[in-house]
Design brief:
Layout: H1 10-22, H2 24-28, E1 38-42, H3 48-56, E2 61-66, H4 69-81, E3 87-91, E4 104-110, H5 119-128, E5 130-141, E6 147-149, H6 153-168, H7 179-185, E7 189-201, H8 205-221, H9 224-229, H10 235-247, E8 254-265
Helix pairs in contact: 1-8, 6-10
């Protein structure tokens, strides 16, 4: 994925695992497939979500694809270390799928559409490899859903840098709110979208560390050099914004973010 705003450094790989593990119950509690199902995971990256889906669906046959060979190598190793054997990996592009029409019972897409120039075309292409009656599951975030206490203009400006950089790369960091119309326009039927809100305060130390610090703030911090070099923010404002984000992880601080999970059928 050439326009992956977060890059491919080891820190990003760690962040993806932290995110997946922290949000497993929230995002995956209802991602289940019948025994013997054929499932396509489009855009598996380093396998952070793949591990969870495969463990929760041990009798499903999962094909995980990605365009980045180095990410897929890491994904294979991750699943091998955990003894997971119901996933096969294939280097493939969502827009040029090497599968026959109707090859899969289900398609799973997580944190991928936000990085694509044409997410609608991607959904239509993925629908073509679904059998009639098959389902799609899509999970995306929406950085515009973020809010925190203490409130901080600089924190909001720092997060906005991530939104603006992703837009510059032809992605959409606000795509969560668009899942319903996107799935409908892709001609999926019986579309449902449910918000999955993460609310964090100091009474939830696992979320403070796993989500606010190691997932969200780490994600924002990762675009620092881009934000400064592109002139989206000055260094003083950026540094205060990041400090204010960390302030939300202390006593009397709160943090909130919403993910969106959409499903639909090919009828």
């Amino acid at each position: 994925m050439q326009n992956y705003v977060h890059g491919y450094a080891e820190r990003e790989s760690t962040r993806l695992v932290d995110q997946a593990n922290t949000l497993e119950a929230l995002l995956h509690c209802d991602t289940t497939f019948p025994e013997g199902s054929s499932v396509l995971e489009a855009g598996c990256g380093t396998g952070a979500q793949t591990v969870i889906m495969a463990k929760n669906n041990p009798e499903a046959h999962i094909t995980a694809i990605d365009t980045a060979e180095h990410s897929m190598t890491e994904a294979r190793a991750r699943l091998a270390r955990q003894g997971i054997s119901n996933v096969r990996f294939e280097l493939a592009d969502i827009f040029d799928l090497p599968f026959d029409p109707g090859s899969f019972d289900h398609v799973f897409v997580c944190f991928v559409l936000e990085h694509l120039l044409n997410p609608l075309a991607a959904l239509k292409r993925l629908q073509s490899v679904l059998r009639k009656g098959g389902s799609v599951t899509v999970i995306e975030g929406d950085h515009g859903s973020f809010y925190c206490y203490p409130r901080s203009k600089e924190a909001s400006l720092s997060v906005q840098c991530l939104v603006d950089i992703q837009a510059h790369l032809k992605g959409n960091a606000l795509i969560g709110r668009q899942l319903y119309p996107l799935l409908q326009e892709a001609n999926f039927k019986e579309v449902t979208v449910s918000p999955r809100m993460v609310y964090v305060d100091s009474s939830k130390p696992d979320l403070v560390e796993g989500f606010t610090r190691r997932t969200f703030i780490a994600m924002v911090e990762g675009v620092r050099e881009q934000a400064l070099s592109m002139g989206f923010i000055d260094e003083k404002t950026w540094d205060k914004g990041i400090a204010d984000l960390y302030r939300t992880t202390e006593d009397n601080g709160t943090f909130c973010y919403t993910f969106f999970k959409g499903t639909g059928l090919k009828l």
